[in-house]
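B., you asked whether I could sanity-check this one before it goes into the benchmark set. Here's the sequence:
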Amino acid sequence: MPPLIEVRDLRFQYEDGTRALQGVNFRLQPGETVALLGANGSGKTTFVLHLNGLLSGQGSIAVCGMAVEPRNYAAIRRKIGLVFQDSDSQLFMPTVIEDVAFGPLNHGLSPHDAIHRATAALERVGMPAAADKAPYHLSAGEKKRVAIAGILAMDPEILVLDEPTTSLDPIGQRALSELLANLPQAKILVTHDIPFARAICTRAVFFQNGTIAAEGSVEELVIRFGWDFAVEQTKSSL
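And here's what the prediction gave me:
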């Protein structure tokens, strides 16, 4: 079975000279949930921003058989749903239903069909009662669910979530874990939350100095690299 994502020798350097990625090779197979682990600054977020063309470096990336290049960006962004760390950066409409319907409307669906998609997506994440609420009235966990609903309304094949448990309490983290585990899409999770990664990830890769230093199960990488990288990320996010 061909991979959903195939990355070969990806390299990227920021304008200040920082070499963020130095020859990354990666594959995502259908049905996988892969954790991207590693300390802050190791290249994880820079890597995922390349997958739908938000950043562009050297090397090759294919998503669902399409090269990640400007002529394919629109189609690729329908295949990959990116959920940012800060849900507020994705929620900007007056009501939840308008927020979730925004993507389908923007891609040409009629208002009726977009609302139908949005309603179904809110049902999927357990938030139908919030449809008419203002997003800023929601809790952090509810905002995360609505942000995911906005992505699901686009019917993507792949979900990419950057630090999805940030700002969530333990109850919210468990609820998010259960939600993601029940979604059929392949997933990439940038995270330093090891218990969360253990709960839902089928595989993990460890980023170090802009490269993938190792891959295996979450437990294998924790044993190999210890907990220092998780502690470092947690401290630097405070």
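One thing to flag: The first helix runs from residue 44 to 50. Otherwise nothing jumped out at me.
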